[in-house]
Structures are given as C-alpha cells and as structure tokens.
C-alpha cells in the first residue's frame, strides 16, 4: 500500500540514507528501529518529500506519490515529526481544525472527534499550542495528523520525552485507530517495548541503510539482536 | 476649559490615531504576522493613493477608486513576493535591503510618472458641530474606517480557514506543507493582502493626505514603531498602540505644539520599548 523504494537522500551534499526500501501494507503497523543518528528521521522526511530525493521514490497504492509535500499530504500521508512542531501561536482547536479544513473535511467535526479521542486535550482546547506540555504537544501533533484522515501515518519517535502513562495511552489509541479506521502506521522508535506493543513487523536501520527486516516474535525473543542493534 | 473644546480635541485626536492605525494595519500583517520588514510599505501606500487619484481623474467615483487601489497594490505586492520576498523569509537584513531598494525604485518611478506636485481631490464636504466648534466630517469618518478595517483583518485572520492557513504557513512553513497547506501560495496571498491594506490606506486617506511621491515616508516611521511596540499579538497590539501613542501625541499637539506631539510619540515609544523590549503584548496568551 505504501512503499519507499531505493531511497537515497540527505542534506545538501551529505548523503544520509542510501538505497532504503520499506513497505507497509494496508492497515499494518510497522516499526522502524535503530540507534540515534542512523537516519530514521531523514527517511521520514524523504517519505514526506521534505528533503529532495537523490534517487528512489515513494508509492501510494501502487502509484508514484506526488513530489510536493502538500500534495503528498493530500494523497493520504500523515506526518508527526520528531520534536512535535505544533503551530505555537494557534490554539489546540485551530491546530486540528486547519489540518482538517485544508484536506476538505469539516474542522468542527475533526475537533469534536479529536477531543473525544484524546480527552487530555479537552481542557486545553482554547489554549495556544505553544503553552502545552511536551506530552500534550505530542498528542496534539498526532491528533492534527489524524485530522487529515491519512491512509498512512508516519510517526517519528512519538514517545520521546513523554511520560509513561501517556505512552501507554498513546499505544492504545494507535492500535484502535489502526483497527477501526484501517490507518497504516510506520513508526520510528528507540523505545523497543512501545514498538513490541503495537507493531507486527520491524525494519532495523544502521548507518543509513536497512540492516534487517524482522517480525515481532523474533525481535521479542532474540536478546542478542536487541543488544547488537539497539543497545538495549 | 469648556466641554465642547475638550470633546473637539478628543475627537480629532482619536481621528489622528485612527489615521495612524489605518496606515499601520498592512504592516501589522506583513511585519507582525509574517516577520517581514517591508521598507517599501510607505510606497505601497503611495501607489494606492496614486491609483485612487488616477481613477478619479478618469471620472470614476471615489468609492470605486478605493477597491481599484486595493487591487493594484495587491497585484504589485504578489509580484514582489514571488520575485523577491519569498527568497528572503527569515533573513531580516536582506529583506530590509531589498525592500529599501524597492522603495527607492517606486519613489523614482512615481516622480517620473506623476512629477513631484499633484492636485488633491478635495475633502468631501460635511462637518460636525460641537458647541462652538466645527470639525471636518471626513477625518472623523476615519475612526469608523479604522475600526471596521481592524475588525475585518481580525476576523479574516482568526475566523476563516484562510486565516488559519496563513498563520500556520508563516509559523512553520514546512510543517504546514506536511499537512497539505500550499505554504508558498498562502504566503504570497498574505503579503499581497498586507500590500493591499497599505493601498487601501493610501486611497481612503487621499482626501486628507494628498498623493505625493514622498508621502509614504511621512507614515512609515510611526507605523513601524507602532507595530514594534505592539509586539507578537500584532493586530490588537497595534490598535492599542495607535490609539495610545497616536492619540496621546495628538492631544499633546493640540494643547502645546506639534513638535511637542512628536516628542511625546517618540519618548513614550522609547519608554515602552525599554519597559517591554519584545512589545507590549509579549506575554499575552492570545493569537492576533
Ligand atoms: N538538518 C540536518 N542537516 C544536516 N545533517 C542532519 C540534519 N538532520 C540530521 N542530520 C544528520 O543526519 C544523520 C541522521 O540523522 P537522523 O535522520 O535525525 O537520525 P535518527 O532519526 O535515526 O536519530 C545524523 O548524522 C545527523 O547529524
Ligand atoms: Mg530521529
């Protein structure tokens, strides 16, 4: 359903990821694992067309994805960047509303749905997003991406700097969204437990390339692999 | 001191403050919202004034000349954004240099086309009597115009989908693209709207401030100071600052001299900036 094919790219002349291929099936949850600095975020930015492709391309439903990020978003790719990046001087409601309206959905309905799905945002609905806590901003960035009604959700380290209780809640919500709406998810993570709790398959990256593709069971049981690739 | 005199001073000061606010709103959008220091803002005002003047010389009624001036300045603004400004977002100094050059070019062009003296269009004749005093009606009408223009921009930026996109696209252009907003196109429109508001100011103030190639200069310094003192909550802040500074300066000028009025304006501005280096609204938790 969603494929990154032979992705090579980076920043300026520095190539960071080389020849990376990844596939996510319809309604599948796939993890992208790897230590800090191996190029997970760079791959996500490649997938969203936020960095130019030196070579390689992205496919959605078997067709080449549009080259501009805004068009790619409209083609069904939702993106939650590492480090949140909510619109700071807009309210929580506006952050969600603008994402929905831009993609031709009702902003009011999207906000209602989001506040139902993420009750922790409810008391903050009219606050500026820049004033929320890290965990709240992370949840808002997720709610904003969902408001675009994506076919595939790209999550870049959603648990970073988020307290454990919220991480559990997030895992539950992601599984439910995946089950109920059939949204496919590609999640870059360093938190192995979080990935094991939601993903059924994983790619492990090292130095800008995919080192290995594995399923949940072997990842769970193979302690040596965990040690070697993630340092856990 | 008589009550009618006091009322007259207050009304005409509020009217001066409103004129300042009308000249500032475009900057509140371009500088306050987009962070672009457009040193050619005053020249857009001048272009608006000449566009309206030229239209009336062709026999077009003044009320229709105003939207024509808006259209002309919006179009020029859009072209300037595409050719120059969009390459320079976030590069304050380069933007200032580029727009400074632009302002000189516009000024010289105006001198070439229109010469340095141009006929005024005459004030629409209606007056307001307060006790023993009589005030020209048109400048007083500017109080309502300023209020309507401020509310219009506020509603446009906070209550419409375009307004949300405009703020998202300038706050985080890349993230905005990643949720489907065509940031580049939206930013062009926002800059054009800012220029259109300057053109509106030049046109609507034409009966009070005749069109001259250098008219922009008279407004641009006070307009800039107003927006800088206003700070991040740019529109509400500008309205408050224009009324406080512009109004205060005008009251001072009526009781003392016009030099004292200007002294009041610049001293209070310096004091406010010393007190609030990031603008009076730096700590406000509201959006516009
Ligand atoms: N904006 C950037 N400009 C230049 N180099 C970058 C930039 N962002 C990341 N890098 C480099 O790219 C490499 C991979 O980074 P990243 O993709 O963020 O890894 P990960 O997400 O796996 O931690 C790192 O060496 C990092 O220094
Ligand atoms: Mg990363």
TrEMBL record, chain A:
SUPFAM superfamilies: P-loop containing nucleoside triphosphate hydrolases (SSF52540). This is ABC transporter ATP-binding protein. CDD domains: ABC_TM1139_LivF_branched. Involved in beta-(1-->2)glucan export. Transmembrane domains (TMD) form a pore in the inner membrane and the ATP-binding domain (NBD) is responsible for energy generation. Pfam families: ABC_tran (PF00005). It comes from Bradyrhizobium jicamae. InterPro entries: AAA+_ATPase (IPR003593), ABC_transporter-like_ATP-bd (IPR003439), ABC_transporter-like_CS (IPR017871), BCAA_Transport_ATP-bd_LivF (IPR052156), P-loop_NTPase (IPR027417). Belongs to the ABC transporter superfamily. One of its GO terms (molecular function) is ATP binding. The keyword ATP-binding applies. Keywords: Amino-acid transport, ATP-binding, Nucleotide-binding, Transport.
Automatic annotation (TrEMBL), chain B:
Its main location: membrane. Keywords: Amino-acid transport, Cell membrane, Membrane, Transmembrane, Transmembrane helix, Transport. It comes from the Bacteria. The chain crosses the membrane at residues 20-40, 60-85, 97-117, 137-157, 189-209, 263-282. It is a multi-pass membrane protein. Pfam families: BPD_transp_2. InterPro entries: ABC_transp_permease, BCAA_transport_permease. It is found in: Cell membrane. The keyword Plastid does not apply. The keyword Methyltransferase does not apply. Belongs to the binding-protein-dependent transport system permease family. LivHM subfamily. This is Branched-chain amino acid ABC transporter permease. It comes from Bradyrhizobium jicamae. The lineage of its organism: Bacteria, Pseudomonadati, Pseudomonadota, Alphaproteobacteria, Hyphomicrobiales.
């Amino acid at each position: 359903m969603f494929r990154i094919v032979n992705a090579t790219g980076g920043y300026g002349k520095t190539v960071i990821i080389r020849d990376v291929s990844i596939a996510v099936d319809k309604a599948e949850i796939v993890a992208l694992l790897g230590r800090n600095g191996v190029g997970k975020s760079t791959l996500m930015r490649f997938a969203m067309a936020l960095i130019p492709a030196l070579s390689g391309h992205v496919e959605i439903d078997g067709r080449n994805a549009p080259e501009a990020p805004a068009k790619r978003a409209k083609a069904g790719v939702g993106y939650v960047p590492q480090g949140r990046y909510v619109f700071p001087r807009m309210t929580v409601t506006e952050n969600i509303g603008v994402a929905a309206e831009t993609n031709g959905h009702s902003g009011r309905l999207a906000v209602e749905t989001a506040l139902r799905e993420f009750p922790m945002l409810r008391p903050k609905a009219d606050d500026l997003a820049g004033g929320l806590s890290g965990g709240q901003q992370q949840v808002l960035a997720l709610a904003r991406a969902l408001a675009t009604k994506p076919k595939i959700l790209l999550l870049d380290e959603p648990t970073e700097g988020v307290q454990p209780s919220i991480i559990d809640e997030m895992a539950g919500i992601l599984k439910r969204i995946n089950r109920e709406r059939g949204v496919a998810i590609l999640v870059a993570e360093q938190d192995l437990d979080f990935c094991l709790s939601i993903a059924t398959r994983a790619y492990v990256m090292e130095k800008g390339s995919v080192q290995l593709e594995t399923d949940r069971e072997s990842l769970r049981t193979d302690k040596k692999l965990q040690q070697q690739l993630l340092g856990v | 001191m008589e009550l009618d005199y006091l009322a007259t001073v207050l009304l005409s000061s509020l009217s001066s403050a409103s004129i300042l606010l009308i000249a500032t709103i475009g900057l509140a959008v371009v500088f306050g919202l987009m962070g672009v220091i457009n040193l050619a803002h005053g020249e857009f005002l001048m272009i608006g004034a000449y566009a309206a003047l030229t239209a009336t010389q062709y026999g077009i009624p003044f009320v229709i000349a105003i939207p024509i001036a808006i259209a002309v300045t919006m179009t020029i603004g859009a072209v300037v954004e595409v050719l120059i400004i969009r390459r320079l977002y976030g590069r304050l100094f380069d933007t200032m240099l580029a727009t400074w050059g632009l302002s000189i070019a516009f000024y010289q062009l105006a001198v070439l086309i229109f010469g340095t003296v141009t006929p005024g269009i005459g004030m629409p004749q209606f007056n307001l009597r307060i006790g023993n005093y009589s005030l020209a009606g048109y400048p007083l009408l500017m109080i309502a115009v300023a209020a309507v223009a401020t509310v219009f921009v506020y509603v446009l930026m906070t209550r419409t989908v375009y307004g949300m996109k405009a703020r998202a696209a300038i706050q985080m252009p890349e993230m905005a693209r990643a949720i489907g907003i065509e940031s580049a196109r939206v930013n062009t429109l926002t800059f054009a709207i800012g220029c259109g508001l300057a053109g509106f100011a030049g046109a609507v103030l034409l009966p009070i401030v005749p069109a001259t190639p250098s008219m922009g200069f008279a407004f641009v310094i006070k307009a800039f100071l107003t927006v800088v003192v206003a700070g991040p909550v740019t529109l509400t802040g500008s309205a408050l600052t224009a009324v406080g500074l512009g109004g205060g300066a005008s009251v001072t000028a009526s009781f003392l001299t016009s030099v004292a009025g200007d002294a009041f304006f610049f001293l209070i501005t310096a004091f406010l900036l010393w007190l609030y280096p990031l603008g009076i609204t730096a700590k406000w938790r509201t959006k516009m």
